[in-house]
Give the backbone structure.
Amino acid sequence: MSDSQHESASPALREVVLVDCPDAVGLIHRITGVLADHRFNIESNQEFVDVEAGHFFFRAEVTAAGATDETAVGRLQEDLGNVLPAGATVRVASRKRRPIVVCATREPHCLGELLLLDAVGDLPAKIVGVISNHDTLRPLVDRFGIPFTCLPHDGMSRPDHEHHLAVAIDRHAPATIVLARYMRVLSAAFVDRYAGRLINIHHSFLPAFVGASPYRQAYQRGVKVIGATAHFVTAELDDGPIIAQDVIPVDHRFSAEQMAQAGRDVEKLVLARAVRLVLEDRVFVHGRRTVVFA
């Protein structure tokens, strides 16, 4: 083959195949048969059956066996749908890095973790913009050369502020919007606009502490575990399907400030893990629950 032919050949497609559908006999055989017919090689795959719900979940990383084009993805998706039960959801997603927008307020820990991971290429995404309702974090974001937009909410109604926020987000056309300690309650209309694309992080204690000083309350109650939860955003505050969680032990030797620092540490790690899981298409939402292929 000549050099020009090498240059014109399309690289092999690297995709993720995602299926969720009512459970039935022989589903894996049907799926792998279609993949073989389309000459896609399975590099890894995972499957799970929710026995109580009678529902099947499947994820596979595949590569085309030879050069092909994007129309092959549409044909593959259509043929998979034809062999699966009624009500099946089939998606074939690219394994390329996708754009994300991060929204933050004043706290730097979650945003800083994502910026660093992006800068060293350890995030399956590309941060294309950071939006904040305060200017506090601009110097941090500027160090990474990422566009920063400040949208103050003072003197604005929530609908007006959310309109400007949506315009700023849509300008970047992100696949996912990450709320990295963005301290604004979003309206149901705004959440619906980006349904399934908003990821949030919050502290999670037992018992639950609400208000402005959860770690002070945790200290006063003598908690023994501090945790964090990353979840999809729904209209119900902090009640969306859970993507990732973690806890770390604390004890009577921790001051309120040390508890807060421990909380920040676990929050940033849980949020980064959740972003990875979502951008690598490892999360299926099924009602209020999730199936996560780690």
Observations:
- The domain at 3-94 is CATH 3.30.70.260 (Alpha-Beta Plaits).
- The radius of gyration is 22 Å.
- Residues 256-279 form the longest helix (24 residues).
